[in-house]
Each structure stands twice: as structure tokens, then as C-alpha cells.
Amino acid sequence: MNVTGNTILITGGGTGIGRALAEAFHALGNKVIISGRREAVLKEVATANPGMAWATMDAADAEGISAFAGKLIADHPDINVVINNAGIMKNEDIKAAPDYLVTAEETITTNLLAPIRLTAALLPHFLKKPKAAVLTVSSGLAFVPMVATPTYSATKFAIHGYSMAIREQLKGTSVDVIEIAPPYVQTTLQGDHQATDERAMPLDAYISEVMDILTNQPDATEVVVERCKPLRFAEKNGNFDQVFAMVNGSHS
Q1: Rounded CA gap, 11 and 114, in Å?
Q2: Hey, what CATH topology would domain 7-249 get?
Q3: What is the pTM of this model?
């Protein structure tokens, strides 16, 4: 992937990793559009970054995603990159079944169906571009699940598999498929406490390493920072049980 000269949509671009990626790509001179459900948050980020655009999108609205993509292409015909970043992460008590299904289904809709739907809506346009890319944010928990968040972990497992499969299908086209797998990062994904948790990787350090990989390894298909490698390669390294215990002894 080229890190300059793009028009990039970043979902969930109002906060956390999404905002940080948006600002990093914006600083490199890319045209960046951020999306999310909260208009006020998006406006605040765009105002802080002159030239950045924004548009609201509800990840739970299947028909709305298709309409959103159509308007996005009309308003920004040069769009050639999407970063599927929007996601939610909530604890679930399986023994409280069926009550936890509300959380499970919301998580699947936001974390898995939304990126699949948005990619499907944008892909015909991307295939006409000389260079395009679909980036999807998974998690270290795609490789070592967290017991407290089974559906979140499952959606990230699925995103990993989906990225691998469509990458192979799109081989030989103009569209790169890249998976970004963060470790436990200082964001508000699971609440305000996470943003200051010393066990989590500082957000600025994480984004710096991600951008370094994307810049210096333009053919990378997975963006896995050093902090995430113990999870990504736990099975390969033969220490899955130990890493699983580490992840589930505390937040990961």
C-alpha cells in the first residue's frame, strides 16, 4: 500500500485508533474522511484537522451502509482506500443466556457484518482504480481469545479469516488487502480506565509503529507490532497455553 496520494475512509474515526490513524494519514497529505455515529465527535476531529472530511454512518444499518457508500463515492470519487476500524467490545456472561445475545448480536453486526457490507459496497469502485486498498482492524484476540469477551474475540477471528480469503480472491487486481492487528492499546474501547491503563500500549507509540510498518513494508499483508507478536504467533511458537493464561489473567 502507498501511504500517500490516497483518499481514505476511516470508520470509527472519531476516537481511539481510528482518530489516530486518520490524523496520521492526514498529516501525510492524504484526503481523509472519517465516519461514525456521533456527528459532534466527527465535527470536532475534522475541525482540529483542517481539510479532513466527515460523514455519519450507522454500522448497524445494512441498507444505510449501501446508501452511505454510494453518496461517499459521489462526493469523493477519488476514494481508493477504506480502513474498517469501527468496533465495540463488551464483556458477556454466557451463563446468563439468552440475555447476553443482545450484546453478542450487536457485536457481530458492528465488528463483522458492517466491514463486510461496506467493503462489498466500495469494492466495485475500488477495482476501477489503478491502486486501492481494504484495511480491516482485527485484534491480538483474533489469535488468543479473551474469555470475558467471547463474541468480540470471535468477530476478530472471523475478520482475520475474511481478510485472508478476500486477499487471495483479489490477488492480481489493483486492490491490496491488509489486516491491522492491535494489541491492548490505551483507548476507551472498554471504558475510560483503558485509556490510562499502564498495561496497555500508549496510543501514540502504537500508531507510530503501525505507520512505520505501512511506510517501510509496502507489501505487508498484516500489520502486527512487536507488542502483539506474542499473541499473533502463540500457536506457531508452541506457547499458546501460556499466552492464553497471560491474556486471561488480566486485560490484553
Answers
A1: 10
A2: Rossmann fold (3.40.50)
A3: 0.95
